[in-house]
Amino acid sequence: MPSILAYDLGASSGRALLGRLNDRAIEVEELHRFGNDPVAVGDRLQWDILRLFHEIKQALLKAKLAGETPASLAIDSWAVDFGLIGRGGELLGNPYHYRDHHTDGVMERLKASLTTEKIFSRTGIQFLPFNTIYQLAALNEANSPLLEGAERFLMIPDLLRYFLTGEMHNEFSNATTTQLYNPLDGGWDRELLVAIGVSPSLFGDVVQPGTRVGQIRASLMDELGIGAIPVYAAAEHDTGSAVAAVPALEGDFAYLSCGTWSLMGTEVDRPIINELAQELNFTNEGGAYGTFRLLKNIMGLWILQESRRAWERAGQSYSFPELVAMAEKEPAFGALIEPDDPMFLHAGDMPSRIRQYCASTGQTAPESPGAIVRCILESLALKYRYVLELTERLSGKTFSGLHMVGGGIQNALLCQWSANALGKPVWAGPVEGSALGNLVVQWIAQGELSDIWEARKVIRDSFPVVNYEPQERQLWEEAYGKFRGLTGL
Ligand code: LFR
């Protein structure tokens, strides 16, 4: 059985995995792993997109040197960010990072001028200040030369795929995250585009996950000394790929895709766009095979990653396992935060911000790294409980437990505390959710798997799922009450 290749790019690292399907069992092999370090230049925070493309090529080279000829490849990545292509097909500037400050205040202004109701009813997408719509509006407000010279809009995987193949296509799952795509009409929302001063001509036809969208270009084959490789569109939004890989056996399941972000929700057949969804600020992101992800973003392990960087800058280096071990030794529920407070969104000194949050809510601020990590992880687990309750309320479903997928599940303490907070079991696995979702969409497109449910079954049979049963129920019930009181949720 020939291998196929999945590139999964996260906000802090990327990986290339080779997958093989043998007797309905998936085998994966990590071909290449690399850091993804955004670069601050002056006031701007940007992605090092050419470095990412270099790493994509490195993986192709590694495949060749290992004697592998992948039968196809696809790329998924974080959402909302994009590059603009100018005359002659050149990329204009480096894509901005969604945590850049150029969108500050833009969402509030557009909500007031266009109305919240209009934006939500046309897109079904949650209000996050970094959504593409606000990034493009910010460029327009700033009379950016990037926008003046732009002829095409490509999101990160579209762009990298364009570098690979020379062909430009906009992929569906990622397109929906822009808050500029109308899932009811099934196309880009021209009215919203015109309202933010961006020409609809930049936006191309939208291709579905599983579409073959070219092959690697001749110049790249020459450069690397390799043959042609067909290129597919996966569910190119990493969360879309992660949910495609949830090893659920029944339709009504709840998931948490756990990485830099924690994305919690359920899969639905059609977007739920109503007053309650708008009020609770849930999203309806497009997925593979006509599915939608009714979910909510939770700030996730970003706060921990960014705290670790702050300690590193102060000359104290800790690994994640070290930090988790330190947290475990601290007393329970010393201090709690609302992880989704806007003060935690941008890069910076998280330990100080956490102390500031605690001081302003009348709590004793955690000082040591262990106490800070305990505060972050307990607060996340309690926020999961809150968002799962909202998901049940909005979807009308009741969940018997929670599927957790993604790199964050390697943190066993977080999984256990999540089960404790929910009072329901957590089923953790697989770790490489997004890359597996990417692989199975390619196999379905090639007729190797029949559909998404068969794919989920095969994933379930191929990778371990760790079961965490809830413990210390009373303690966590009380903590949940304290969390709701403190955060005002
Ligand atoms: C997760 C993710 C989220 C999206 C955020 C920003 O990696 O794709 O789904 O809201 O990154 O793009």
UniProtKB/TrEMBL annotation:
Family annotation (CDD domains): ASKHA_NBD_FGGY_RhaB-like
Database matches in InterPro entries: ATPase_NBD (IPR043129), FGGY_C (IPR018485), FGGY_N (IPR018484), Rhamnulokinase (IPR013449)
Gene Ontology CC annotation, any one: cytosol
One GO molecular-function entry: glycerol kinase activity
GO biological process: glycerol metabolic process; rhamnose catabolic process
Residues annotated as domain Carbohydrate kinase FGGY N-terminal: 4-242
Domain Carbohydrate kinase FGGY C-terminal: 254-445
Keywords: ATP-binding, Disulfide bond, Kinase, Nucleotide-binding, Rhamnose metabolism, Transferase
Record-linked PANTHER family: L-RHAMNULOKINASE, SUGAR KINASE
Family, similarity comment: Belongs to the FGGY kinase family.
Protein name stated in the entry: Rhamnulokinase
Organism: Paenibacillus montanisoli
